[in-house]
Each structure stands twice: as structure tokens, then as C-alpha cells.
Design goal:
abc type-2 transporter like fold; 446 residues; two-stranded antiparallel sheet
């Protein structure tokens, strides 16, 4: 008699509901996090640091010493009093160059040394060919191309507004003096300063316009996360806990009953060892084959290996503690929440408060900051490298304590992945003893 066909798995409400809930959570979280962090950068912009440099030495005009550079600075600060999108930082040129070279400001507006003298020369009758003064806007793509662009737009706007304000005063002064100006001269005086754009901290042509550090960091994070998943699967296969399919072939090893702590330790050692291989290959591929601009190659290699190792160990701890849901948690922590809060594309100053808070501890921001320091800022510790090393050290310590602490707790409570033979044998022996006692004849009475 033919055996009845098992019911179709597609008819199981539990399968549909369980899969649907998981996919609904994943799609909603990724949409909210990815798009939510970047949907309105201008509306969320607050306190974007931009340097304001006044190198003007002033000039004597009309019997008194005048410094129009001070007027430009005070005018910009006054106009920004009720607008908190830009944090104008009044600095010396030396300090501004230093902060540009550390990624701590996204741009700068520089008033030149001869600004007042050049402006005064426009209305001087002795000047036959007056030189138009120049205000210089410095960009900083190494701090992030979008942030640099936003700083450049704000700085150019401020420079043109300052030039227009000075032009009004020049025309007013010329009218009071009864000077007859040609139309071309009036147009020049109305907007006397030219605005010049220059690169404040140039990056190489093979630096993805200041984004190579972010892309490199993302590769390291993905390598660590996917490497942990692969190692966890390989360890489980080697210990016989799961089988592996290679096309139509299935591999299943004999079960080796191993504690959860030892299983995690095996995966951790593999992760640490193979991080050397992955970090080396990533650097060879990006620097050696793709010719990415990079300096401090030895430090870059150590940093790459360490990053992959820390991310991988952290992901292994999540897998050991939560099982299959640990993969989803890894994707949310290392990708979904990390990318929009990294400050690599859209600066943190242009993100909603929630993502700014995430950026304080999310790994991708710290990793990207360290890589920016290595790739763009001559590996300066206070340009993000020191913070990155400290953050990775803390993350590694927390992951090790969490992972081994949870697995140790599982082992102590007897929550083994597969019941041990000793447990089943003891219960079987106990059952057989009970049955034997029941079937034995009662002793004869004396």
C-alpha cells in the first residue's frame, strides 16, 4: 500500500508568517535607516565647522587706519547669529591649514593680507589700473565630498554677501565725495571682491574624491562580517552539527560533542588567523591592482587586519549567543545602522539627532576616521587614528567578554546544541533498570 504524501510545506501558516515577519522587519529597518539618515541633509545641517581666516593687515585711508577684513569677519558672524547651520571658527591661517589637514573643518574663507589696500585702490584717483581684491574659498574633500560641497556653498555665499556690503559703502563714499563714476566702475564697486575657489587639502586622483577611506572601511567591515558567517558554518560542519551541500552532494561529518565555549574559541582562533589573509588580499587588490592612493602601507596593513579581526570576532560572538538571528543582528549593526551614521558621505552635522548619537559608537564611523588619518592626514593620531584604535580595543574586549560569558552560561546550564551521549545513556540505563525492577518476581515470604 503506497505511503501517503506529506502535506506541502507551502500550506504551513507558520512558515509564511515566520518568514514574512523576518523579511518585513529587515526591509523596514533598512529603508528607515538608509534613507532616513540621508533624505534631508540641508534641513538637518547644524554646526558644520568652517574656518574664517582674516590675514588682512589693513591700510591707512582718510587719515585713519581701516581693516576691512575685520569688517568681513564681523559681518559674517553677525549674519550667522540666528543661523546655526555653519559653525564659523575664526582662526589664524596656520591653525586653519592644520585643521584642514586633520579633517576637523570642511572648508575655509580666507581674507588676504592686502585686502583693505586693494579695496581702497579701487576708488583712489592715483590708481589707473586697480587690482580687484580676492576672497579665497578653500574646500576640503578629504573630510567628505558632500560636507565640503555644503561648506563651499555657504562660504561662497558669505563671501559674496561681504563683498556686496563693502560695495555699498564704497558707492556711498564715492557719492558723498561727488565723484563721477563710469558705469563699468560703478559695477565693479558694487561687487568689488572676486571669489576664488581653491583646494585647502588636496587628495590624490585615485582617492575617489575623498571617499576611498569610506569604501575601504566598508570592505573591511563586510569581510569581517561575512568571514565570521563562513567560519561559523565551517566549524559547525567540521564538528558534525550541520551538513554542507555542494551542488547535488552533501557532506556530513560525525558529530563531535563540543562545548559552546570551545566552539566559539575554535571560530575565534580561525578568525584571527584568517584576518591576516583577508587584510593582506584587500590591500593587494586596492593598492597593488587598483592603484588606490595610499601611504603608510605597513600601518595600513596592520589596521586592515585588526579591523577585520575585531568585526569578525564581534560577529562570531553574536552568532554564538543568538544563533541564526545573530546573522541578522550583525547585518543591522555593521551595515544598516553603520553606513548612514558613518559621516563618510553625508557629514554627521547634516544628519538627524538619532544618527548623530549612533555615530558616537557605531564601528564604521570610527574605522573610517582611522583610515582617513592613514590615507589623507599622514597618520596623525588626533586626526581620528587614536580614536579608532581605542574604539576597536573596546569593541574587541566587549565582544570577547559577551560571547564567552554567554556561551559559558549556556554550558553550565546544560543547554548543549545536541544532547551528549552520556546524558542519553544515563536516561536509557535508568529506564532499563526501572523496567527490570517492575518485571522481577516478588520475593517469597518466609
Amino acid at each position: 500500500m503506497p505511503s501517503p504524501q506529506p502535506p506541502s510545506a507551502l500550506r504551513s501558516p507558520r512558515l509564511w508568517i515566520g518568514s514574512g515577519l523576518i523579511l518585513a522587519v529587515v526591509s523596514t529597518l533598512f529603508a528607515l535607516l538608509y534613507v532616513g539618515g540621508n533624505v534631508n541633509p540641508k534641513g538637518n545641517l547644524r554646526d558644520l565647522p568652517v574656518a574664517l581666516v582674516n590675514s588682512d593687515r589693513g591700510a591707512d585711508t582718510g587719515g585713519k587706519h581701516v581693516n576691512l577684513g575685520d569688517q568681513v569677519v564681523s559681518g559674517i558672524k553677525k549674519n550667522a547669529a540666528n543661523n546655526h547651520s555653519i559653525d564659523w571658527q575664526v582662526l589664524s591661517r596656520k591653525e586653519a591649514d592644520k585643521r584642514l589637514g586633520q579633517g576637523k573643518v570642511f572648508g575655509a574663507l580666507v581674507v588676504p593680507k592686502d585686502f583693505t589696500a586693494a579695496v581702497s585702490g579701487l576708488t583712489s584717483p592715483q590708481q589707473k589700473q586697480a587690482a580687484r581684491p580676492t576672497l579665497t574659498v578653500l574646500t576640503n574633500q578629504s573630510a567628505g565630498s558632500i560636507g565640503s560641497s555644503m561648506a563651499s556653498q555657504a562660504t561662497q555665499k558669505a563671501a559674496h554677501a561681504a563683498s556686496a556690503q563693502i560695495g555699498k559703502e564704497l558707492l556711498s563714499r564715492a557719492n558723498k565725495q561727488g565723484a563721477r563714476l563710469a558705469p563699468a566702475a560703478q559695477l565693479m564697486l558694487a561687487d568689488p571682491a572676486a571669489v576664488e575657489i581653491a583646494d585647502g587639502h588636496p587628495v590624490g586622483s585615485h582617492s575617489a574624491m575623498g571617499l576611498s577611506a569610506f569604501y575601504y572601511a566598508l570592505v573591511l567591515v563586510v569581510c569581517g562580517m561575512l568571514g565570521a558567517n563562513a567560519i561559523s558554518s565551517q566549524v559547525d560542519t567540521a564538528l558534525g552539527y550541520v551538513h554542507t551541500d555542494f551542488g547535488p552532494f552533501r557532506q556530513r561529518m560525525p558529530v563531535q560533542h563540543t562545548s559552546r565555549v570551545r566552539t566559539l574559541a575554535i571560530g575565534t582562533v580561525l578568525m584571527l588567523g584568517l584576518s591576516v589573509v583577508m587584510g593582506s588580499l584587500v590591500q593587494v587588490a586596492t593598492v597593488g591592482i587598483l592603484d588606490m592612493d595610499a601611504s603608510h602601507l605597513g600601518l595600513l596593513w596592520v589596521y586592515s587586519v585588526a579591523t577585520i579581526a575585531v568585526v569578525g570576532v564581534s560577529a562570531l560572538a553574536l552568532l554564538a549567543a543568538f544563533g541564526t538571528p545573530g546573522m541578522l543582528l550583525s547585518a543591522i549593526i555593521f551595515v544598516a545602522m553603520a553606513v548612514p551614521s558613518s559621516g563618510a558621505t553625508v557629514p554627521l552635522q547634516a544628519l538627524p539627532d538619532f544618527f548623530r548619537a549612533l555615530g558616537e559608537f557605531e564601528p564604521l564611523r570610527q574605522i573610517t576616521g582611522g583610515l582617513r588619518s592613514i590615507l589623507y592626514y599622514d597618520a596623525q593620531a588626533d586626526a581620528g587614528l587614536a580614536r579608532a584604535w581605542v574604539s576597536m580595543g573596546i569593541a574587541l574586549a566587549v565582544s570577547v567578554v559577551f560571547g564567552f560569558g554567554v556561551t559559558r552560561l549556556y554550558d553550565r546550564k546544560g543547554l548543549h546544541r545536541i544532547p551528549r551521549p552520556t546524558d542519553t545513556d544515563e536516561s536509557a540505563d535508568s529506564d532499563e533498570s526501572d523496567k527490570a525492577a517492575e518485571s522481577a518476581p516478588a520475593p517469597a515470604s518466609a
